Structure formats: C-alpha cells, structure tokens
Amino acid sequence: MADSNHIIIESGDAVQPFTYSIGMHGSKFFTEIRDNRRFMGIRCPKCKKVYIPPRGVCGDCFVEMNDWVEVGPGGVIGTFTILRFAFIDPETGHQKPVPYGYGFIRLDGADTLFQHYISVEDEKKIRIGARVEPVFSMNPKGSIRDIEFFRVID
Amino acid sequence: MDRAAIVGVGTVKIEKRKVRETFADMAWQAVNGALEDAGMTIDDIDNVVTTSSDFWDGRTISCMAVGDASGAAHKNVSCVEGDGTYGAFYGMARCLSGSYKTTLVTGHSKGSESVSSLITNCAFDPIYERMLGMDMITACAMQANAYLHRTKTTREQTAMVSVKNHGNALKNPHAQLPMDITVKDVLDSEMIADPLRKLDCSPVSDGCAAVVIAHESVAKKFRKKPVWIRGVSLCADSFFFGDRDLSRARSLTEAAKKAFAMAGIKDPRTEIDVAEIHDAFTYQELMWLEEMGLADESSAGRHLEKGEYNIDGRLPVNPSGGLLSGHPVIAAGLYSMAAVVRQIRGEAGGFQVKKARTGLVHGVNGLGGQSHCVWLLGDR
Q: Considering Cα of B255, then B261, then B264, then B268, what sign does the dihedral take?
C-alpha cells in the first residue's frame, strides 16, 4: 500500500480525444433512428441471420451483407442487470446515479441482441422474456442516446 | 508433431496495490523466479514473448517497458495482447517452429493504477455500446442472469464457488485474498450489479508471472522434470456481445474439444486430475465447466455442492484459490498455468492435490469469455 517512501505520480486531466467514423452502416442506422424512429438491421444472404447493429460482414459465414431489414421497435429482454454500485460514468466522469438498468434486447425480427438501458421504474417487471418498447429522445442527434431507454410494457 | 514442455515458472505475490514495484520490477522478480526454477540463466533463453495491455498499462507499446527486465535485450521479443495463456501459445509456437529452442513468456498488469470500469468500458464498441457506460462487471452480470436463468443454478451454488476458492487460497502464499467465509457472507455482501455481489467478483490486483517453454530436444536439460504440453487450443467468438448466446460459450466448447483431441483424452471427466479455470466471477467457474464438457448441462452447481471440486474432491477446481482470490488481468492465465505445473511436479505445497498427472489450464480474454484458451499439461 501507499507509504511515505514511495512516490506516486498522477496522470492529470489530459484526455485522448478521438473522432470515430461510424461508417456507412452506422450512418444509415443512426439516420433512420433520428429521422424516422426506425431500427434497421441487416440480413446475411447465406445463413439469413438478421444482425443488429448492422455491419458489413457476417462473421459466421464470412460473406458481405447488403440486405437491410427493419426490426423492432418492440422486443423482449434477452438478459439484464440492475446496477447498484455507483461506478464512474465514462461520459461525464462522475458517479452514475443508481439503481440503473441495463439489458440486451431481442428486437422483433432480429437474431442478435441490442444493448441499452432499461427503465427501473418498476423493478419487479424486469425479467428475461419481458416485452419492452423504446422511448426516443425528443432531441435526437444521431447517436445511441437518441433512444433514452427501453421500458417494460407487460 | 514435435512436442514442447514447460520447464520453469515464476510468480510474484498478487497484491491489491504494488506501490514499491514498477512493471519492470515485477517482471524482474517473475523472470528470475522462472529462470531459477528451471536452473537457467538468461543466456539459455532464445527469445521472449511478453503479454500486456496498452490500455491497462496506460501507455502504448507497453511491452517495451518490461523488455530489459525480461532479458529481451538483443533478442527477438514480441508482445501479445490478451491473456497470458495466449502469449504462451505464441511462445510454444515459436519453440515448435524450428527457429528457437526456448521461449520466455511473461504477463503483467496492475489493476490498481487505473479505474477498472473505465478501462473495461473501452472494450465495448465506441459507436453502439461504449457511451452507454457498460463495463466488465455489468456485462458479466447480464451473462450471469442468462446462465442462471437457463440452467436454474442457484445463488447459493454460485456463492459456494467463492467459499471454496477463497478457502483454497488460505494455503497459497501468493494469493491476495485468502478468506474463511460462508455462503451467507457471500449472499450478504454488497450487491454490485444483479445477481453479482461483491464476493462473487474477483478483486482488483497487481501481479506478474513468467513461464519458460522448451522444445523437446532440450526440455530435459534443465533442473526440473519437464511438464509436457499435451494439447492446446485457442478459439474466439463474435466481437459484439449481443451476437452471442450469453449463457453459452461456443468458443470454449470448441477449444476444449480440440485440446482434448490433441492430448488424446477420450473421457475428460475421468482423465483430468486438476483444473485451474478462469473464475473472474463465481458463476463462470460452473458455466465454463459445463461448456468444456467437464460436467453435464446445468449440473456443475450440484457437483460443487457434493464437494467434487474441492482440493480432495473428484476433480479439484482452482485449488490455488483461482482469480477470485487475486486477479491480475493478462497475467491471470500464466498464474493458472504455473499453479498446474506445480501440481504436476508435486510442488503445490498446502494446495497440492493427490496424483496430479494431467492438469487443465484455462485462460480467457474479452467480455464474458469472448475467447478461450485451453491447455492440457501432463507428466508424460
């Protein structure tokens, strides 16, 4: 443990800012959410699996995907957790307010799970298999935060 | 195919915070431990593979910081990012390539120097996932719920993994968290993210481990009887967490099958004498056992209850105390490997299991077991 003989140096407040290109698939995905409140997945021509988020390649088949399909907006909880411990939010640098719901959601028509927040308004309703719907932001900007959270509608 | 063996192992005590030692200081201790164990000098080492993560170390080209202390000067040194067992895989391949006879493999990390949740948050995709703030613990909590839901494994059963492994650590002088605890202590510990409580989670740790791998043509020249690599396989699953059935580990099932076949093991449930597997969270020990085929589906919890995974049980699992008792990421798999090597040599001291002739080592990298490396080590 720290003691008087051993010095510790802090890295300070410097950050490493990046400008991520989100590519043609991400751009279409977020444009559809922002402008039309629609979730767009992409289907593998070989195994027919519908992926969300959309991307260019089916890893299982190693083939290119170009077949866009609308999925959701409703779905079911694939799995979830409720965070009780106030970790630091990477977005703000401050502790997150807890409790806090996270889930992997199987949007109707999709074969993969989509990660987002789940409202913990009524914790007892949160279970694997529960039906959920998204609540969209009133001020969409073209990011994953254009969906505020999913809420259980069972 | 040519064979390779592990001829030396060195580990430093796992601690919550090593304020005295830099990365290089830890490497110096672990490397000299392994050389001493093998009865070697650094001149006997043909090449070096270090294993580290630039994110955890807070610097790019993090391997170079430990090069001098790992005896890499003027040698071929290469870095692997991932679990230490992945570095060992590469080290073994170098020995089998014909280019080198001996490879020194190290793995290090210090969880104490950064904010772990921010580091593991960066493993998520920056476009779709990262800004939601998920980290390793929340990801694994969701995996735990999916696994418990599918298998009906109980919280009491997962808690027993913590009781067993912290108890085993009482006999391991290099463990960070030896503890005599009860199932109730685990179930009463602070809830972090449902269903994971504090004592379901491995701690933040600092540590470094080293192993020396040798080609069969030289493996018997050194101080200790070689521990042979009988089988090994490394398999990876999809990048996006949501693409996987989170209650399953398809890549582990595949890796185990391939490693058993390579080792000529037909019935892994009776032919393996000891296993050190990746128990970063309690449920994982049970889930990985099932996914490796070492227990029937949904049955590992019941076998655990019967004491079958205890040090004196049918299949001792994590007799060293496992990662629950000290988890320096990256180095973790090399600690597991060193523990199994010591078991097979009969040098495991207080946590020695009876008749350990064949041992299994399991290393993991990525969120909730994105990729898995399975080793079968033996005295023959």
A: positive
Collect all residues of chain A within an 8 Å Cβ-Cβ radius of residue B142.
Answer: 79-81, 102-104
How close is the nearest chain B Cα to the Cα of A113, in Å?
Answer: 4
So what's the pLDDT on residue A112? 97
Please give the residue of chain A at the shortest CA–CA distance from B139.
Answer: A81
> Is the distance from CB of B121 to CB of B133 less than 8 angstroms?
yes
Q: Where exactly are the structural domains of chain B?
A: 4-114+204-221
Which tokens is B22 given?
């830099």
Nearest 5°: the CA angle B89, B94, B98 is 140
Lookup result for tokens 């140096």: A9
Non-local (6+) Cβ contacts of A4 within 8 A are none
Tell me: the pLDDT tens digits for B269-327?
Answer: 999 999 999 999 999 999 999 999 999 999 999 999 999 999 999 999 999 999 999 99
Nearest residue on chain B to A54, judged by CA atoms? B128
Q: Over the Cα atoms of chain A, what is R_g?
A: 19
Please state, as a whole number, how many other Cβ atoms lie within 10 Å of the Cβ of residue B21.
19
How far is residue A85's CA from residue B151's CA, in Å, rounded to a whole number? 26
B4: which strand partners?
B215
In this structure, the number of other CB atoms found within 10 A of the CB of residue A117 comes to 20
How many Å lie between the alpha carbon of B197 and the closest alpha carbon of chain A? 10
- Amino acid, single-letter form, for residue A54: P
Q: Which residues of B touch A120 (CB under 8 A)?
A: none
CATH of domain B4-114+204-221: 3.40.47.10
Residue B73 Cα distances to B31, B99, B108, B213, B269, angstroms: 14, 18, 18, 19, 44
pLDDT reported for residue A94: 80
Select from B319, B9, B343, B8 the least CA-distant residue to B175: B319
* Residue type at position B261: A
* Residue B257 structure tokens: 């099958």
Average pLDDT, chain B: 96
Within a 13 Å sphere around the CA of B80, how many CA atoms are in the beta-carbon half?
25
CA-to-CA separations, B215 to B1, B338, B373, in angstroms, rounded: 11, 18, 20
CA-wise closest residue to B24 among B76, B62, B69, B61: B69
Residue A2: pLDDT band by 50, 70, 90 thresholds?
A: low
Which amino acid type is present at position A126? Answer: I
- What ipTM did this prediction achieve? 0.91
Blockwise average pLDDT, block size 10, chain B, 380 residues: 96 96 97 98 98 93 93 95 97 97 98 93 90 91 97 98 98 96 98 97 98 98 97 95 94 98 97 98 98 98 98 98 98 98 97 97 96 97
Predicted confidence at residue A154, as pLDDT, reads: 83
Of B134, B137, B145, the CB nearest to A115: B134
When CB atoms are compared, the residue of B19, B196, B242 closest to A6 is B19
Nearest to B68 by CA among B42, B36, B88: B42
What lies within 8 Å, CB to CB, of B104 at 6+ separation is B31, B34, B45, B47, B48, B49, B70, B71, B91, B210, B211, B212
